Amino acid sequence: MLAYFVDNFDPFIFRLWDNVGPRWYGFAYVLAFISAYFIVRLLSKRGYCDLPPERVSDFITWTALFGVLLGGRIGYVLFYKPEMLREPLSILRVWEGGMASHGGMIGILALTFYYARRHKLTWTNLGDALVVAAPIGLFFGRCANFINGELYGRATNVSWAMQFPKELIENRALGDRAVAIALNLDPSLIAPEQIIEAARHNSQLNDGLRGILTPRHPSQLYEAFFEGIVLFTILWFVRTRMRQPNGVLTGLFFIFYAIFRIICENFREPDAPLVGVFTRGQFFSFFLIAIGIVFVVVAKVRPTFPRNVAASS
Q: What's the CA gap between 47 and 151, in Å, rounded?
């Protein structure tokens, strides 16, 4: 029998006390925004983005606060947890997790449109610069999901399968079995959350969990690779090696992100009720493909170009 890796990392980088301290998930957002700043600034300096380099920090700050964070949170509530609307204050408890990438994209679209109009810039040109940076943020976010042991994959017996203790919280029967195992080692461990925490420092308990947890696809890593590394490579190549009008990269981002998401969702355990035969993520991704096609078609029919491309044509 294979000894599968148990994904039970501490979600905290370090703890100041108890459950207070910087988390890897928050650090992933910081890395995402920093990388976006440097990538957009580089594109601006090379003339691919009409936003002046000295305004990039302002733009990324607005995007982070009102596009990614606000849009992602609202999207999570509307698309996945509408019951939170019955307790509006719960929406503000962002430290408990809950962000939707589709919501973040809609938020970024709206914010970019507003920012471009306010500063008399071409909306699609600004968006094209941002979507080149976005996959790096997605990469860090998926890595944080992996560290947190959340949004894990479907059951499998492949040799690289992993086990995720958070399954104990979401599967009551499995949680009860874990409690029975833990009580033989420490009578104070009476809840799955306590067991998960204790297993990080107790190899005997960790081995006990390994015997009952389901081997699963590490789907977070699949998504980090395709939605992050592969998508960034595609967009960077198109931006720097091909002469494309404003809006094409935005369209390609939506199309390829949606395709990769639809594929990866086949390996990911659904975290919301299905929409017909599709997961919630797949269902919303079909709309992203349609939006992406519209961007590409409009860009080709009514082409405008970044200043360095226009100057060289």
A: 39
